[in-house]
Design goal:
Layout (H helix, E strand, L loop, with lengths): L58 E4 L6 E4 L8 E5 L7 E11 L4 E8 L4 E3 L3 E4 L7 E2 L4 E2 L2 E2 L7 E4 L8 E5 L7 E11 L4 E8 L4 E3 L3 E2 L21 H19 L3 H12 L5 H6 L17 E11 L2 E11 L3 H14 L13 H10 L8 H11 L9
Antiparallel strand pairs: 1-7, 2-3, 4-5, 5-6, 8-9, 10-16, 11-12, 13-14, 14-15, 17-18
Helix pairs in contact: 1-2, 1-4, 2-6, 5-6
Length: about 400
């Protein structure tokens, strides 16, 4: 899985929480007031006939009676408005991105369509005739169509599951295009293009190892079953409402006080505004270190900067991607549970302020005020109301 997104969060991994990352926010994102937030959902295969070449397009028009359809700078209602299209206007689509879930007049959809003239519109308000095609994914600057490259093999194997032990369904010839719906984390394969544990799920059914696929440019694909990206909440209480249920799930499973989990999510995701949180539902900056390790559904690389004793520097790192907020909260609880250094904190699972000081003392964060910051947030927003008794 590849991405050029920018994250802003605290880093941790390998049992240590070492450095705080400092990077600029994603360009073009603005809070525009209350919006519908979707924290659950799945990626479904797109219906319709496949488009074999970028030039072959189905007819598409805006279906937004009574109001113009906004054109945005990116795939969410939080991106800057750059134009509008009247109801019935014809649109020419270049490619699609996986973005904010929208309930529109035509369908409920997490896909946003990049127009050939620039900007994005929600697929939820676009009517296709005769039917919706398999639209190409967007790369950084243009559409990108994946191509099979099996090397010396007679064809690229399509498997029933994302590993080489799966039943072979068919073969795809060298140079054929693929209609990829999403990616699944499976068996690591050393292929003709790269070594990768990502497998591409095809609209026609089955999986092919991404290690044997050429992408002309790097799209940001959804992991199969992953909820759509979120937008920054309009208010602090909206964010707290979003994460309180998942934090309580984590408390039931791992005994981490929900109030502490919520306060940490506020600090480490910037109230849900970091790219890592919006795109991959990672609220705590947990790194992959080669594997999503069970609860996460995959790994994604982000450009970021990290700061240590010798100053700050630009780098790239791989972070865990989650199905939704619940996955992130559960993995956070498990992270604290499986690392022995945090064991003393669990004496205080019903004393959240002492729990916060204990994990800080054990080395969770390098900031000397980290525990005080958590406690101040817990008190200000009365987060102990979410702790289970």
């Amino acid at each position: 899985m590849r991405s050029g997104s920018v994250a802003r969060h605290l880093r941790k991994g390998g049992g240590r929480h070492r450095r705080k990352a400092r990077v600029p926010g994603a360009a073009g994102i603005r809070k525009l007031g209350p919006v519908a937030l979707v924290v659950a959902g799945t990626v479904a295969a797109l219906g319709g006939a496949p488009v074999e070449a970028l030039g072959a397009t189905a007819g598409s028009t805006v279906d937004s009676p009574g109001t113009p359809l906004n054109v945005r700078s990116g795939g969410s209602s939080a991106h800057k408005k750059v134009g509008a299209l009247a109801d019935g206007a014809a649109v020419t689509v270049s490619c699609q991105v996986f973005g904010q879930q929208v309930a529109g007049g035509v369908r409920d959809s997490p896909y946003w369509l990049r127009l050939t003239g620039g900007g994005y519109v929600s697929d939820a308000y676009v009517r296709w005739r005769p039917e919706r095609p398999h639209v190409a994914w967007c790369g950084p600057a243009a559409a990108t169509v994946p191509i099979a490259r099996p090397g010396d093999a007679p064809g690229l194997n399509v498997r029933s599951v994302s590993n080489t032990g799966g039943r072979e369904l068919r073969k795809i010839g060298d140079g054929e295009t693929l209609h990829v719906v999403c990616q699944d984390w499976g068996e690591s394969v050393s292929g003709t293009q790269r070594r990768s544990a990502a497998w591409n799920k095809l609209a026609e059914g089955g999986y092919v190892a991404d290690a044997n696929v050429v992408w002309p440019s790097s799209p940001t694909l959804p992991w199969c079953g992953q909820a759509p990206p979120t937008v920054p909440p309009a208010t602090p209480e909206a964010f707290i409402t979003r994460v309180s249920g998942p934090a309580q799930e984590g408390m039931r499973r791992y005994s981490v006080p929900a109030s502490v989990t919520i306060a940490q999510a506020i600090l480490e995701s910037g109230w849900g505004g970091s790219g890592l949180t919006r795109r991959d539902h990672n609220y705590f900056g947990i790194k992959c270190f080669g594997s999503p390790a069970g609860i996460a559904v995959g790994c994604r690389t982000y450009e970021t900067s990290e700061c240590g004793k010798k100053g700050c520097f630009r780098t790239r790192a791989s972070f865990r991607a989650y199905r939704n907020a619940s996955g992130s909260m559960l993995d956070h609880g498990r992270f604290l549970t499986v690392n022995p250094r945090y064991a003393p904190a669990f004496v205080w699972d019903y004393a959240p302020e002492r729990f916060a000081r204990a994990i800080h003392k054990a080395g969770y964060a390098t900031s000397p005020t980290y525990a005080d910051n958590l406690i101040n947030i817990m008190r200000r927003y009365d987060l102990t109301r979410f702790d289970l008794r």
